[in-house]
Amino acid sequence: MLPPFKQITIAIIAYHSDFSLLERLLESIVKHCKVEQISSIQVVLNDQAIYLPQLKILLDQYPSIPLVLVPSYDLEPVITEYFNWNTQQLFKCLISNKIDTGWFLIHDCKDYYTANVDLLADCFTPEGKALMKLDHTQYSDYNRHGGGLLPFNLAHEIACNVWGVDSNDTAKWHLPTTTPFFVKTQMMKDMVTELKSMIRGFFPYLFNLSINEQRVATEFLLYTAYCTRQNNLEDYSDWGRNFTYYKKIKQSKDLRISFPDNPVLDQKYFTNGKIWQWNGKTWDTAVQTHMHDAEPPVDTIGKVRSFKGTDGN
């Protein structure tokens, strides 16, 4: 049975050095997801505005899916002078204000699909609860959040203190701290509103703070504790009920993987940080309008074909 809604939104946070990873993710969405289940795909540029033209050209390659480019300044005009993991966390929270579906799915660029998925049947219960890993009781030390994520112990304790929940309970039963991550849109909007009220103009810098290499706050820990306070994670169900979705998605920062054995004409593939396209006989470098370098074509078994430059070498 399907949940009582027909669409969700996808949010992707992108940095310029991850553009090839972003292409792999978008290609996998085109290939494996049902576009009618996606209200929009909000791609947030977690980077300087000079990369907007490159990102727009990249997104224009995928007219079959509902892509929306969101500049960082649309979400937070007052931002730190650099963009990194900290601002990425900020935008994962703030993008909720651009979303009008009841749920949104956060992806990092390193995520990609490997098989056909149903974003409704595979990801939600018939009651409309998101399926995520909640049961963490297999960890030997419940006091170490996430089974030993030491850099985030302080962030875990602070998140629980801020929202007034028992940290011992959330160490056993909590949402993941990585993508893919399903967010109840109104819950995230409400959390952001409360945080902004509490810390006012400091909010854009919340995720930049650390003490002795321990993070003071992370987006998913804050959100988990907030959901626990609001309704004890009532909007979520443990993925043990249906693990299907999580078998069909992988994560990798490395694009060096094997070429497919039976490619179809014009099929694209990603390896060594480059994009290749099957011309019917060989793998050629695909047009990468957002990139400035290229590699020589490779043959059917993935080896770079030898060639001579103008100097004969």
How would you sum up this structure, described in words?
It is a single chain. The chain is of the alpha/beta class. The protein folds into two domains: 8-251, Alpha-Beta Complex (Spore Coat Polysaccharide Biosynthesis Protein SpsA, Chain A); 255-313, no CATH class. It has helices at residues 19-32, 52-59, 72-75, 85-94, 145-148, 153-163, 167-172, 185-199, 219-231, and strands at 8-14, 38-45, 67-71, 103-108, 111-113, 130-132, 181-184, 210-211, 214-215, 236-238, 249-251, 268-271, 274-278, 283-285. The strands form five sheets. The chain has a five-stranded mixed beta sheet, with helices on both faces. Strand 2 (38-45), helix 2 (52-59) and strand 3 (67-71) form a beta-alpha-beta unit. The longest helix is centred in the middle third of the chain and has 15 residues, at 185-199. It is globular and about 60 Å long. Residues 140-149 and 289-313 have low confidence and may be disordered.
